[in-house]
Amino acid sequence: MWKAAWCFHSSGDLAAKRWVAAHAVKILAGHSQDVVTVLERQATVAGLTVGQRKGVDACIGYLAAKQAWLGYDVALDQGWPIATGIVEGACRHLIGDRLDITGARWGLAGAEAVLKLRAVSSNGDFDDYFDFHVEQERQRVHQARYQQGFTLVA
Prior knowledge:
Layout: H1 2-8, H2 14-28, H3 32-46, H4 54-65, H5 72-78, H6 84-99, H7 108-122, H8 126-145
């Protein structure tokens, strides 16, 4: 949005900040296609040359290419994070701190198992998960073995 803003506003113009904020709110509300339409029309009405509208075209290209991933309205309604810093921090904490160590070689199954346990632990659900795991193991090992009426002697 800022690249597009500088096509319509001079450097340091406070109106540029308001312009970006207004369009950002529309994108967050799920109306990125409307923003594309407005940008295209505004560049045409302003009579920008091909060179002058590079920032506008870059913004339009980005919004058009990422349309499927710009469902910010849905994410916000669900309470999901939309800021990349939160996601990047979670990736660093859950993945990078464990898997990205010198000399480590991970297969997909092993990495997935470790990351699932890290996620369960980070979410504070480890005790509940472990109780569930123990019960599943008991059923798998003992119930299947003694399902024909044999009893387990203590």
